[in-house]
Amino acid sequence: MFSQNSRNLLVVFLTLLIIFEMFAYVATTPRPREQFFQLYVLGGNQLLSDYYPNDDPNIRVGDLVRWHVGTTDFMGSVQLVVIRIKLGNQTIRPPDDIQAQPSPAPLITEFSRFIQDNETWEFPFFWQVTNASMMEGSTRILELQINNATYQVPGVIAVGGHNLRLVIELWTWDVQSQTLQFGWSVGSERRSAWLQMWFNMTGPGGQ
Amino acid sequence: MEADHVLRIRYFLILCIILAILLPLTAQTGTSTSQLTEELQPQFSRALVLVRRAEAAGATHEEVAGLVLLLNKALQLSEEATRLPSSEAQSAALLAQMNETLGKVETEATRLEATASQRTLTNRVIAYVSGGVGAFLATLGYAYTGHIWRKYRIKRTFQMRISPK
Asked: Which ipTM score applies to this complex?
């Protein structure tokens, strides 16, 4: 019915059709990629340095500490991100990456924002201890000022004023469970991002 | 003696009532920092779902950026509203403005989802049809090249000369 030449052309056409349609499929199908967030803290000059006044993590009441906190969304979709700031001492548990559990340290404040895929949200985080008491060799932070807002601190005590820390946790809104979750979910897996910045308050300046 | 006892019970009851009123108030101040994300969940969640649907349907980065801007505006309004517990009227006005903004986000996201999915479908159809057309043109090219090649071979054959060695 068909000549040898027509049959050859049909075979060539079908082969080329498969190749070209494969290209079309690859071009129109979004590629799967790893979903994650990036969380960081920079110093006063938006560099990985100058975290504390005079580069000395031993701060006093009234010393203004200038940081910049930032996060980048690599989740492939718009996310409601909440950055929670907690104040802890040496003994309080840090967040648990394996169990995806946040730190039990008291929450001081939080910053929320919607960010889209590949977007970085960076904000200034200027803070100072405005009230602290020193008793029997222990320092108790009573009041913190963050970005000109004052927060009362519920009893964080450090022996000798050593090893206090600000824990910065990343929380996201989970649409399925309709709750704010520590970290984020990728399929059935939970991941988390958090930072902690250590400082001391051994010097004078407390009450 | 009995009157004294009744008076004590009365004082105790009054104290209980005062505590019952004050305790929820103190509890509210204690959790003020995390109220926003706890209280305004449903509206924001609904808007977020719609924006994500528009994004998944193929809305561009710029189109989604417009919606994210509105979402952040609503978030800012709700934050301002929670910071004004004393002025109820002002707080209510801000919340009304926030609801309006979220309504705008929902409307725009729904419209964007329809437009984006239509555009994605069109692009996909164009890509697959282009694949078919490309394959057809490449086959024609192959056939034409084969034809030219055969003609060339015939021409060469007829141009051959027999030369004695």
From this structure: 0.86
